[in-house]
Amino acid sequence: MKNKIKFAFIGAGSISFCPATITDILKSKKFETVENLEIYLMDILQEPLDLSCAYCREVAEFFGRKPVIRASTNLREAVEGADFVITAIEVERYHYWSQDFHIPRRFGFRQIYGENGGPGGMFHFLRNVGPMLEIARAMEKGCPDAWMLNYTNPEAKLVEAVAKLTNIKVVGLCHGEQMGMDQLSKFMEIPKDEFAAEIGGLNHFGWVTKVWRKSTGEDLYPLLREKERQIDWLAHWDEFALSRLMLRTYGFWPHPGANHIGEYIAWSDELLASAKIQYFYDPAELDPWKTKKTPEFVYSFSSNPTSRPLFSEVRQNAGDPAYVQTFRLNGREPWGSGEYGIPIAEAIASDIPASIGAVNVLNHSYIPNVLDKMAVEVPAVVDGKGVHPKTISPLPTAVAAMISLQGTIHQLLIETYEEKSRRKLLQAMLLDPTISNYNNAVALINTMCEMQSEILPAMKW
Q1: In a 10 Å sphere around its CB, with 0-12 CB exposed, 13-18 middle and 19+ buried, how is residue 43 labelled?
Q2: Residue 192 pLDDT more than 50?
């Protein structure tokens, strides 16, 4: 293990990743032996940055660690000399996400969720790719040998852009694969530690290509198919109905859940009941994008949001700064993330190999029948020489075709950004499975470019 390691966390105001990732670093037994451990927190907003810094010091004290903790709004200083740069960036996440969800549907696109796939995912990419490339180029100058560990969505699109447009070593990380393992465990009624699986595909559109019992090597797919037929059809509809139909249709189990995998197919809208109330508001009464009082975000019906009492306490809007409590221990033990970022950093820094269930990297025949050089999600082994993706079994022909189509869309979006071209964006949109028609696609592009003009790159026809 090196005597000196520096982590730079860019987007340190993130309530989704910063507190838990800080805990991962400071709880790590491997990094406990590092004499000079530095955590440099960076964000463009001072208030959440101050909260993160205070939380980092509190967690360090809790675990009895004495890292060097710094915080700044200066990107160059943050990445200078870093070994690992963690990226979890987003600007007014729910405000823009609600637009990504509603506006394409207003123009007839059969889009759900609007985060990583569909036209919503396209605008999400175009908002985040500029800042992500700015970080990567600062790394090229200040820490050219560092690894970028990315949590920012849309994961696959951004990883592909950074990998193709810069010289930075980048790996994208997501817990969707772990959600898939939880689902298999529930369906097969087998504890997770008793089976193993091989996964592969696209981020938020992953597929279990093999599943077997560790003790005997028994193929567990026959059991999974048998159990799926026994389970109540309406059980956890929002999470499993689409996945179950895809298992029956294509022979493999997809993950992480309907509201994610459904972004990449045209017929998912009828299989996600909560799509009708995601960011619900009455347009006759409200204009949330002018007031910035973002409607409440409903992930799925798994939390049973329709069973609330008639007169409940006032609920905070999704866009309000409810993050303050997240950055305080209040006597509790800090929780870790369960994500793969810090285990990857441990394996690289210690040169002790580790198996990682899923990483997002450019495809170099790791999935043999999927478009080469597009960002894919596959297992990997990590050691002191870096991330070594594994080659997996070919995917079903239809699944490989759906994923490869997204790879073409990725490339067109990168060209859209480089050329600042609405016409290239139109080409990508006309390929998308959720397209309604040509006129609506043009109108959607013009509308979103106007609505998000302060954050989207300027693009012309």
Answers
A1: buried
A2: yes
Partners of 356 in the β-ladder: 380
Indicate if the alpha-carbon torsion angle 209, 241, 435, 456 is positive or negative: negative
pLDDT (tens digit, 9 = 90+) per residue, 250-288?
Answer: 999 999 999 999 999 999 988 999 998 999 999 999 999
SS3 label, residue 219: strand
**Can you list the alpha helix ranges (DSSP code H) found in 231-379?**
237-250, 258-261, 288-291, 341-350
**What does the alpha-carbon distance between residue 38 and residue 139 come to, in Å, rounded to a whole number?**
17
Q: Where residue 334 falls among pLDDT bands split at 50, 70, 90?
A: confident
Task: Specify the 3-state DSSP secondary structure of 283.
Answer: coil
Would you place residue 146 in the very low, low, confident or very high pLDDT band (cuts 50, 70, 90)? very high
Looking at per-residue confidence, does 454 or 312 come out higher? 454
Q: For position 16, what pLDDT does the model report?
A: 78
Q: Which two tokens stand for residue 423?
A: 């016409």
CA dihedral over 98, 104, 107, 109, signed as positive or negative:
negative
Q: Confidence class of residue 15 from pLDDT cuts 50, 70 and 90?
A: confident
Angle formed at CA 42 by CA 37 and CA 44, multiple of 5 degrees: 175
- 130 forms beta bridges with none
- Indicate if the pLDDT at residue 418 is higher than 80: yes
| Number of Cα atoms under 13 Å in the Cβ half of residue 426 | 17
Beta strands in 203-335, from DSSP E residues, in sequence order: 205-213, 253-255
Residue 96 phi/psi, 5-degree rounding, is: -75, -35
Strand 36-42 relative to strand 68-72: parallel, antiparallel, unpaired?
Answer: parallel
Residue 317 pLDDT exceeds 90: no
Residue 349 has pLDDT above 80, yes or no: yes
Q: What is the DSSP string of 101-124?
A: HHHHHHTT----S-SSSHHHHHHH
Write out the two tokens for 156.
């696959």
DSSP letter string over 146-214? Answer: PEEEE--SSHHHHHHHHHHHS--EEEE--THHHHHHHHHHHHHT--GGGEEEEEEEETTEEEEEEEEET
What gap in Å lies between CA 162 and CA 366, rounded to an integer? 19
Which DSSP category does 278 fall into?
Answer: T
Tokens of 91: 């600007």
Burial class (CB in 10 A: 0-12, 13-18, 19+), 283: exposed
